[in-house]
Amino acid sequence: MTIAARPLDPDAIIGILGGGQLGRMLALSAASLGLKCHVLCPEPLSCAFDVVRRVTEADYVDKSALDRFADDVDVVTYEFENVPAETATFLAARKPVLPDPQVLATTQDRLVEKSWITSLGIATAPFAPVGSLKELAPALAAIGRPAVLKTRRFGYDGKGQATIRTGDDAEAAWQEIGAQPAILEAFIPFEREISVVVARSIDGETLCFDVAENEHRDHILKVSRVPAAVPAALADEARGIATRIAEAFDYVGVLAVEMFVVADGAAPAVMVNEIAPRVHNSGHWTLDGCSVSQFEQHIRAVAGWPLATPVRRGRAEMVNLIGAEVEAVDKWLTVPGASVHLYGKPAVRDGRKMGHVTQVFEE
Amino acid sequence: MTIAARPLDPDAIIGILGGGQLGRMLALSAASLGLKCHVLCPEPLSCAFDVVRRVTEADYVDKSALDRFADDVDVVTYEFENVPAETATFLAARKPVLPDPQVLATTQDRLVEKSWITSLGIATAPFAPVGSLKELAPALAAIGRPAVLKTRRFGYDGKGQATIRTGDDAEAAWQEIGAQPAILEAFIPFEREISVVVARSIDGETLCFDVAENEHRDHILKVSRVPAAVPAALADEARGIATRIAEAFDYVGVLAVEMFVVADGAAPAVMVNEIAPRVHNSGHWTLDGCSVSQFEQHIRAVAGWPLATPVRRGRAEMVNLIGAEVEAVDKWLTVPGASVHLYGKPAVRDGRKMGHVTQVFEE
How far apart are CA A7 and CA A252, in angstroms? Predict the structure, then answer.
């Protein structure tokens, strides 16, 4: 059962599943609109806990905690795509959950996601299911090398992935990803990686932010530049794809679509790599570089409020502060026009996103 | 005793006295920098309580609550100038209080404040002390009519003021302001009202935001426009005055100086009307119209961090949503480029600041 959502009053309470930096920035944006948030997360030191008065420190499958959480809030949303299906179902029987939990079912599984994207007539890298080690050889024969073997579930920031090049031992890759249900994808020699953050309202209005161009380091996003250095027609195509995906999901909230730009013969073309049913790191630039942020847009959508028309303020460059890089934040604090965002995380860890910096330049 | 302040670590806790919208926006800006806040306010429904995890609901002179508050925080600041002197003194013996409590002693009393400004060689409206009814007639004779009789303490948004024009009964004005120690000020036929928000760091660096031009309605700020439509030399003079005031106070944090522009014969000149030792409504435009907001600048200063160099993003116009005006917020939600800020206050009341909207236009 899904409960229909209605526009929230300004004193309503939005429940957020997940207490990381995305939940934190969602809560801060909700506060700018006068809305309250209640954050549920199992981690006692969740950085989103510090910016709200209402917190529930509980496991995602703790039914009695979920019950109290549902009682307290007017709508539920989430900051990460790996919300357990039973959590989403349990909450959706009590309060509106936006985006709809069926989106999670699709995007939590790379094979289901890619098949679904393909069914919309949208290009992805060629892929094949690998349910067991013995399916790997025929999949490799079909896809060719180099190829990337990825776990179907729970991958992020390059975790659960192994590249199989000519001469590589395929079985080693299978063991490396934990010998679990996987998908084999053709390795795409892309020209660049781009992403589109799109928002869709309860009324079905969609609005895209400008296309970001993303640079990864060690499989973690390092820099996003907006606008992406792509022809206008390709940017339109990318926005069109994100919009079609949001519409096909009957999505409410903000969604990000990561894409590869490939030099397909003469004209460059776009291929979808991944869908993130949530606000996305490549949209952080909107906090400073746009009249409305992706976080506010998501809150407006799940609150049943109208979306804002994004007006970009210039050319934006967002740099993630990862792990110990945050210790060099002092140098950023005095760069004129640089906006520093720190997430208040209790401990520096390798690969952990500690903050980001956005610079907006005149075009 | 004043305890010296040191630069805060990113996981430090800033104590904020006062739980209104200014405290709320300070806490939100602190969160963007990864800093935590603890808000102390006697009002149970304080809107700043909703955006922090640590709250103390207690009277400002509740010593045991202040003690616990001081224990929990690394530095104390305030969102309003009427913090009781004994509160500031009590806290300053335990933790750094910034801006220094001596600033409060000066700015809480209009007579002391105006005398102090005059002692710096900065122009104000002519004024005279009125300690009792019998001092009113000689003060009126000295200042002339029209004049404005103001209580020395606890005035804001036009409260505690009465204008005495030709033919008006002076004693009625004295009764109107509550027959209490007052100051009589010459009525200034100003051309426009402007304000300068200045930040000063622990190291003594000062940085001004651009001059705002302010329009009041029923003694409450209604619109601020930036930059003010004044000659560059006058804007420089205004910023210079604000800087001198901040330096004379050895101020740490953000300070606002309200001024009148008067057509003094040929050249327009500036006269200081009032000092607000805190972030100020006429600086709200900086949240959207500038690379750094007045709130972040204040937090950086009291945290002992370097100030940011403000880069204005365009011509800004900030409109307050006062009382029932907030009910028309829907129309603002869809204006392209308009940034809506609601304060999450529990009840609409006449004259209550419920939110504001900023629009930034290309110059």
Answer: 12
ipTM topping 0.90: yes
Distance CA B13, CA B53 (A): 11
Does A342 sit within 8 Å of B291, measured CB to CB? no
Angle at A212 between CA A209 and CA A216, to 5 degrees: 145
Q: Which two tokens stand for residue B268?
A: 């327009």
pTM of the model: 0.95
| Cα of B38 to nearest chain A Cα, Å | 10
Instruction: Assign domain A192-361 to its CATH superfamily.
Output: ATP-grasp fold, B domain (3.30.470.20)
- B279–chain A nearest CA distance, Å: 17
Cis peptide before A227 (omega within 30 of 0): yes
The pLDDT of residue A1: 45
User: Token pair for residue A242?
Assistant: 């994100």
Q: Is A33 in contact with B308 (Cβ distance < 8 A)?
A: no
Tell me the backbone φ, ψ of residue B325, rounded to 5 degrees: -55, -25
Instruction: Sketch the domain layout of chain B as residue ranges.
Output: 13-97, 126-186, 192-361
**A–B interface: beta-carbon pairs under 8 A:** 123
List the helix and strand counts (H, then E) for chain B.
11, 17
Question: What is the fold of B126-186?
Answer: Dna Ligase; domain 1 (3.30.1490)
Least confident residue range of A64-68, B151-155, B255-259: B151-155
Average pLDDT over residues A200-229: 97
* CATH topology classification for B13-97: Rossmann fold (3.40.50)
pLDDT at site A157: 66
Q: In what order do the strands lie in the sheet with A182-186?
A: A127-130, A182-186, A147-151, A161-164
Judge: A342–B308 Cβ closer than 8 Å, yes or no: no
